# Entry
Amino acid sequence: KWSGSKKILPAVFIYFLIKSYLILLLKKIDLVYLTDGVLSLLIPFLKIFKKPVAVTIHGLDITFNNYFYQLLVPYFLNKADKIICVSRATKKECLKRGVFPQKIEVIPNGIKDEFFLKEDKKNLKERFEERFNVKIKDKKIILSVGRLIERKGIHWFIREVLPLILKKYSNFIYLVVGEGKLKRDVEKIAEEKDLKEYVVLLGRIKKENLKLIYNIADVFVMPNIKVKGDLEGFGIVLLEAASCNLSIVASDIEGIKDVLLEGRLGKPVKCYDSKAFSDEVLKILKGNSFAGEDLRRLVKENFSWQEISRRYSEVFYCLINESSGSN
# Structure
């Protein structure tokens, strides 16, 4: 598994190659599973052992904007026996780059049911105030969780959407969890728009505190914007929010579409449509929570690890049986 910087890829490649060879030589292995597209560079070397190879593609591992990366990774992906994409958007990016469609299977990411707290919201808010020294007692809470980078659209949401919300509703606070290179830009926008008292950047926080925040929020927003070469392959935070029965408003783009289950898990809004975002958030702030099905149930039925691992197992056993039959 590799999720770090691609700048040190040559060293990582050598390490994983040696480690893979040792495992394949010393243990009985039926199938090789690579958890990131960048590891597809190992496939020709692993194929020496005549074992089926499966790879999961998440998003940036297929869209990474580098000439040599784009030259090599799609080519080597086609050497795999099965390519599992976490969303239809990720599959589309693979197909654009010449990955064979017959090798692709779409299986979403999964989630543990570990965020929901069965406690009184008033008590949870008091606990939040004690930990973060932010007054929220009588306020409605808008929440975003994600890195402060361009594609997450948080800077756009503060600049274009919050002022519209403020014209019709002022008793709210916007909590943002996450760090990133746009932090100073976000702070500057909040100051220029005179929104500092409404926007609180919490930075990177512990999981215990993230659970707390999901359970005190009133609406979760994921206002992603399109950025060339930087795909939102899925959006696991949407599942975390929905598992807490938190109403969702999110951009209707890329992998986010799959997570929203055609609007059953949250309200999809056209990218860059500030009025639509404002209108949907205001409905929830004024008491009209997302009128969909029980969100926790939908998450469990479609994205529990039990369900996702079952789908992976079907793919893996199929590959192993095909490999055994051909040998």
Remarks:
- The first helix runs from residue 9 to 26.
- The radius of gyration is 22 Å.
- The chain has two domains: 6-110+305-326, 121-302.
